[in-house]
TrEMBL record:
<comment type="similarity">
    <text>Belongs to the 3-hydroxyacyl-CoA dehydrogenase family.</text>
</comment>
<comment type="subunit">
    <text>Homodimer.</text>
</comment>
<dbReference type="InterPro" id="IPR013328">
    <property type="entry name" value="6PGD_dom2"/>
</dbReference>
<feature type="domain" description="3-hydroxyacyl-CoA dehydrogenase NAD binding">
    <location>
        <begin position="9"/>
        <end position="188"/>
    </location>
</feature>
<keyword id="KW-0560">Oxidoreductase</keyword>
<dbReference type="InterPro" id="IPR036291">
    <property type="entry name" value="NAD(P)-bd_dom_sf"/>
</dbReference>
<keyword id="KW-0597">Phosphoprotein</keyword>
<feature type="domain" description="3-hydroxyacyl-CoA dehydrogenase C-terminal">
    <location>
        <begin position="192"/>
        <end position="259"/>
    </location>
</feature>
<dbReference type="GO" id="GO:0070403">
    <property type="term" value="F:NAD+ binding"/>
</dbReference>
<keyword id="KW-0963">Cytoplasm</keyword>
<dbReference type="GO" id="GO:0005737">
    <property type="term" value="C:cytoplasm"/>
</dbReference>
<feature type="site" description="Important for catalytic activity">
    <location>
        <position position="145"/>
    </location>
</feature>
<keyword id="KW-0520">NAD</keyword>
<dbReference type="InterPro" id="IPR022694">
    <property type="entry name" value="3-OHacyl-CoA_DH"/>
</dbReference>
<dbReference type="InterPro" id="IPR008927">
    <property type="entry name" value="6-PGluconate_DH-like_C_sf"/>
</dbReference>
<dbReference type="GO" id="GO:0050104">
    <property type="term" value="F:L-gulonate 3-dehydrogenase activity"/>
</dbReference>
<dbReference type="InterPro" id="IPR006176">
    <property type="entry name" value="3-OHacyl-CoA_DH_NAD-bd"/>
</dbReference>
Length: 315
């Protein structure tokens, strides 16, 4: 905790991801200055963070060594960007997923911070070379892509700009580890990064199986939640292969590689996620969980509560 004492992180954008990042950094004892260009929005975000931290403390799920009151004492809101950036060594951008908006943020931020300040974006799919294309010093730029909600799901993908210095990757990796996240390093930029490329592959095949009448929406979700997801919560696909054959990965490949290739070659084209199939799948999904605000809010709260419990188990 002593290494973070007094150090300042600026969070630009006070929406869901911005508030979650603020909570993560507070849990590590960092001072957090949260900024939003909509007057009063950052102040309203503080009220939400306060409510969440107090609820987490009451449930015994508060992260870090500090109480909710101590963490909240480290948090401030700002409507003025230069003021919000004052003293920061790390800037985490969390504005909406629109390239021009992010480029505009980093143009403004760069004009108010020193050369040693790390500029980090929360984008989930925009390439660093595009996000930071208008930044003069691209060597200190990096993508820190969290998984929603980052307070409960700890993975962070660190994706470098082609010019990013190794020291910036190392410093960001260290920061994310210190605040309790689980950072992974991508060695170079790629469209969709790693998480979404894997996620989209699962979504595409799930969509095809439902569209082709092989399985229902409810049951394909059970394939993941009660099947693959049970072990993927603790080990990944590579270790799964390694453990699923008596003599490890090489043995697994000798046993199953021919079958894997046969199935993979039978996959259909990438779905367009529109038209009649989309209407039918949406109808089936909404029969299970209606898409009105009340039902979705209840399910999201359930998701977060279960993730809290899973995070506790994984400790």
């Amino acid at each position: 905790m002593s290494s973070s004492k007094g150090k300042i992180i600026t969070v630009v954008g006070s929406g869901l991801i911005g508030r979650s990042w603020a909570m993560v950094f507070l849990s590590g004892g960092y001072r957090v200055q949260i900024y939003d260009n909509q007057a009063g929005q950052a102040a309203r975000a503080l009220l939400d963070v306060r409510k969440q931290l107090e609820e987490l403390q009451e449930a015994g799920m508060l992260r870090g060594d500090l109480s909710a009151t101590q963490q909240l004492a480290l948090l401030s809101s700002h409507d003025d960007l230069p003021q919000a950036l004052e003293g920061a060594f790390f800037v985490q951008e969390c504005v909406f997923e629109q390239l021009e908006a992010k480029q505009e943020v980093f143009r403004a931020v760069e004009s108010h911070v020193g050369e040693g300040v790390v500029l980090s974006s929360s984008t989930s799919c925009l390439l660093p070379s595009n996000v930071f294309s208008q930044v003069q010093n691209q060597k200190r730029c990096i993508i820190s892509h969290p998984v929603n909600p980052p307070y409960y799901v700890k993975l962070v993908e660190l994706v470098p700009h082609p010019e990013t210095l190794p020291a910036v990757m190392d410093a960001t990796y260290t920061l994310m580890s210190e605040v309790g996240q689980a950072p992974v390093r991508l060695r170079k930029e790629i469209d969709g990064f790693a998480l979404n490329r894997v996620q989209y592959a699962i979504i595409a095949e799930s969509w095809r199986l439902v569209k082709d009448g092989v399985i229902s929406v409810k049951d394909i979700d059970l394939v993941m939640s009660e099947g693959l997801g049970m072990r993927y919560a603790f080990i990944g696909p590579m270790e799964t292969m390694h453990l699923n054959a008596p003599e490890g990965l090489q043995d697994y490949l000798q046993r199953y590689s021919q079958g894997m290739r046969r199935v993979l070659e039978a996959f259909g084209p990438v779905p367009d996620f529109s038209g009649e199939a989309a209407s039918q799948i949406n109808k089936e999904m909404c029969q299970l969980i209606p898409s009105d605000h009340e039902h979705l809010s209840v399910r999201r709260e359930r998701r977060d509560q279960l993730l809290m419990g899973l995070a506790s188990l994984k400790k």
